[in-house]
Amino acid sequence: MLSGDTFKNIRVYWLAFVVYWGVFLFGYDAGIAGGVVFQPYFEGSFGLINADGTVNKSKDTMISSNVVSVLQAGAFFGALASAPLSDWIGRRRTLFGFNIIFFIGAILTTIAGGSRGIGYIYSGRVISGIGIGGMSAVAPAYVSECSPKDVRGRITGGFQLMVTIGVMTSYFINLAVSLYMPNSPLVWRIPFGLQLVPAGIMCLGLPTVKESPRWLASKGYIAEGIANLAYLRMEPCDSTEVLLEFAEIEAAVWEEMESRKGLGLKEAFFGKGNFVRFAIAFMISMLQQWSGQSSVGYYAPQIFTSIGYSGTTNSLLASGIYGIVKVVSTGFFVFFLVETLGRRMSLFISAIGMGITFFTIGALLKTHPVNVPQYDLSAPPPPASKAMAAMLYIYVCFYSLGWGPLPWVYVAEIFPTQTRHYGLAMGSGSQWLWNFAMAKVTPTLEAHLGYKLFLMFATINIVGMGVFSLLLPETKGHSLEEMDIIFGAVSADSRESFIGRALDHRNPKSNSKRR
C-alpha cells in the first residue's frame, strides 16, 4: 500500500490533511441539503405540506432543487475568482480567505427558521458555495504542487476520498436527527451547524503548512522556494535531490515566461500545448457531473425512494450505506490502485462499469415498476428494489475506481505552474456549473423520466466517458514539469537545456522578502 518513503513525505501528507478539510466541506455540503429538505419537519416548517397533510409536490420539488443548487451557483463564481487570487497572494492565503467566507454562509443557514425564513438558507448556501468553490479549485493545485511525483496520484486522489467521507458523514447526520429529534428545528440546525467544525480545523491548521514551492518560484522567491521544498522533502537545502527538483521547477517557469514574453492572457490559454489542456479540464469535469453520481449523491434519499425504499428512515439508511460503500471503494483505489492502473485505463474501466450497472437498474425499474407509498409511510422494499440498490452500490464502486477521484488528479497535474491556477479554475468552474445544472434538474428528471433517467446516464457513461478516456494522454509517473513535453509545449531537448541553465545559475537574486 504505502512505500518506505511514506514517513519521508509525512509533511506533504499533513499538508493534504489540513487543506482537504475544505474538500470535506465540499462533500458534506453536497450531501446534507438533499437529506435536510427531505425531513418531514422541514417540509412542514417551510410551507411544503398541503392542508390535507400531503406533500405539495411542485413546491417541494422547487424548494429542494433551489436549496441544493444555489450552493453550486455560488461555488461556480468562487472557483473562477480563485485563479487571480491564488496567483496574486499564494495558495495558502487564498484558502484561508475562502474558508472565512464559508464560515459566514454556514452561520446564516444554521440560524434560519422562525421569522428568518427560507431566504436565510438560500443566502447562506450561496455564500458557503463561494467559499467551497474557491477551496475546491485551489486545494488540488496546492497539494499537487507540493507532492513528489511517485505518490502524487495517491495524495492528490485523497481529494475525492475526503469528498466521499464528507458525503457519508452528511447522510448519517441526517439519519441521526431524523431518528432522535425529528420534530424540531434541529433537523436543519444541527446538520448545517456542524459544518463549522471542519472549517475551524482547517482554519487552525493552515498556519502550520508551507506555501507552494512552485508558486514561490513563479514569483521569484527562490531562496524560500528551495527552503520550502527541502522542508517538504525532509532534506537539507543543499541536497542534490532538492536542487535538481527545484532546477526542473525553475526551468519550467523560465520556459513559460520566455514563451509568453510580450504576450497576453489570450496566448496563455491558446498558446502551444495549452488549449488542449484547458479543453480537457472543461470536458473531464463536465462528464464527471453527467455520470449520474451528482444526481444520486445530492438526492440519495429521493433516488432510493424512487426504487422502492419508502419512508424517511429506510431511504436515509440506504443512503448511509451508499456513502460507506463510496468511502471504502475510493480509499481502496487511492491507496492501492491509482499508481498501478494508470489514469487512462482507470477512467475507461470506471465508465464501462458505471454504464452497465445503470443499464441494469433502468431495465429492472422498467420491468418491476415501484409504487411509492403515501407521505412518509414505510414498507419493506421488494426483491427488485433490493437488486436495484445493490446495483447502485456496485455503480458507486466503479465510480470510485476512476471518474470520482481522477478528474481532480488529472486536471491538477497537466498544467504548467504559471497557468495551473487558471486550469484548476476552469476545471472547477466547469464542475460547479454542471453540478448546478444537475442539482437543479434532477428532481424534475426523476419525477418525469423514471427508469429512463438511468438509461440516459448509462449511455453517457459508455458512449461519452468511455471513448473520452481512451483519448487522454497517460500522465502516471511523470513530474509536473514533464507535462509540457507530453502535451507538446516544449521538446525534451529544450527542457534539458533550461534545467542546465537553472543549475548553472544556482546563486540568483534570492530575495526572501516573502510575506
Automatic annotation (TrEMBL):
<feature type="transmembrane region" description="Helical">
    <location>
        <begin position="12"/>
        <end position="42"/>
    </location>
</feature>
<feature type="transmembrane region" description="Helical">
    <location>
        <begin position="275"/>
        <end position="291"/>
    </location>
</feature>
<dbReference type="InterPro" id="IPR050360">
    <property type="entry name" value="MFS_Sugar_Transporters"/>
</dbReference>
<dbReference type="InterPro" id="IPR005828">
    <property type="entry name" value="MFS_sugar_transport-like"/>
</dbReference>
<dbReference type="GO" id="GO:0005351">
    <property type="term" value="F:carbohydrate:proton symporter activity"/>
</dbReference>
<dbReference type="GO" id="GO:0016020">
    <property type="term" value="C:membrane"/>
</dbReference>
<feature type="transmembrane region" description="Helical">
    <location>
        <begin position="186"/>
        <end position="209"/>
    </location>
</feature>
<feature type="transmembrane region" description="Helical">
    <location>
        <begin position="155"/>
        <end position="180"/>
    </location>
</feature>
<dbReference type="InterPro" id="IPR036259">
    <property type="entry name" value="MFS_trans_sf"/>
</dbReference>
<feature type="transmembrane region" description="Helical">
    <location>
        <begin position="120"/>
        <end position="143"/>
    </location>
</feature>
<dbReference type="Pfam" id="PF00083">
    <property type="entry name" value="Sugar_tr"/>
</dbReference>
<keyword id="KW-0472">Membrane</keyword>
<dbReference type="InterPro" id="IPR003663">
    <property type="entry name" value="Sugar/inositol_transpt"/>
</dbReference>
<keyword id="KW-1133">Transmembrane helix</keyword>
<feature type="transmembrane region" description="Helical">
    <location>
        <begin position="453"/>
        <end position="473"/>
    </location>
</feature>
<feature type="transmembrane region" description="Helical">
    <location>
        <begin position="316"/>
        <end position="338"/>
    </location>
</feature>
<feature type="transmembrane region" description="Helical">
    <location>
        <begin position="422"/>
        <end position="441"/>
    </location>
</feature>
<feature type="domain" description="Major facilitator superfamily (MFS) profile">
    <location>
        <begin position="15"/>
        <end position="476"/>
    </location>
</feature>
<dbReference type="InterPro" id="IPR005829">
    <property type="entry name" value="Sugar_transporter_CS"/>
</dbReference>
<feature type="transmembrane region" description="Helical">
    <location>
        <begin position="387"/>
        <end position="410"/>
    </location>
</feature>
<feature type="transmembrane region" description="Helical">
    <location>
        <begin position="345"/>
        <end position="367"/>
    </location>
</feature>
<dbReference type="InterPro" id="IPR020846">
    <property type="entry name" value="MFS_dom"/>
</dbReference>
<keyword id="KW-0813">Transport</keyword>
<feature type="transmembrane region" description="Helical">
    <location>
        <begin position="95"/>
        <end position="114"/>
    </location>
</feature>
<feature type="transmembrane region" description="Helical">
    <location>
        <begin position="62"/>
        <end position="83"/>
    </location>
</feature>
<protein>
    <submittedName>
        <fullName>General substrate transporter</fullName>
    </submittedName>
</protein>
<comment type="similarity">
    <text>Belongs to the major facilitator superfamily. Sugar transporter (TC 2.A.1.1) family.</text>
</comment>
<keyword id="KW-0812">Transmembrane</keyword>
